[in-house]
Amino acid sequence: LSKLNILDDINLISLAPNDFRSVIKALDAVKPNEIYYLAGLTSVGLSFEQPVECMESISLGTLNFLEAIRFNRKKIKFFNAGSSECFGNTNKEIANEKTVFSPRSPYATAKATAFWMVSNYRESYNLFCCSGILGNHESPLRNKRFVTKKIVSGVWDIVKNKSNELRLGNLDTWRDWGWAPDYVEAMYLMMQSKVPEDYVIATGVTNSLKDFVSIAFKKFNLDHNKFVISDEKLFRPSDIKYSYLDPSKILRNLNWKSEKNLENIIDSMFEDLIN
Predict the structure, then answer these.
(1) Which residue has better confidence, 57 or 3?
(2) Is 36 a catalytic site residue?
């Protein structure tokens, strides 16, 4: 957001999204014009271990903000960070804003619930609220629980002779990977629209996790086949094989498109790690 010069000052307050009173107090204290709800459990893998916390932090948190805005009776705009995980396994079919949800994880189920609550509050109470259906968005801020950061860090450890292998789960999964700062600009553009609408935010290009691994190792002229082990113990209870996304609506309506391809993203993640 700082890139867009939206925030000149940040006031930190105590806020528990799953506690309605806390949310009400936060809105009274800050008096926001816009709210970007990016909170909640963010890891698909962790959601299988903590499904209750996942549902509360995402869906209940979203509901509390929507209700607080409704009671506030002021024109507060609300952005909900949705997820392409809601589509489930697209089986090489390209998903857009009209594609039926078929969630396959507690995380995706919580995100789907939040999406429909936003849609309902927009229609029922005439609130300016919208959801960005986000594809995978990467940056150096990822922690190692996320496979992309695990790969980049693992490759660097091998380059520095701190490790001689990289254990990963299923490499035959396909995702649309984008650059998080680009996606924040898309969120902002959605909130400046005259009419609130939901949009798929993605690059429109899908790669396999094996592609990601191969590109990362090639940066240092290494053959990933010599170092990578696909460990079934790291497979998820249920996983999405294919995720193909169509961002044409946001390009058409808001003139937004992602600027970085997968190789650019991996370069940026390595650059931050090395420096």
Answers:
(1) 57
(2) no
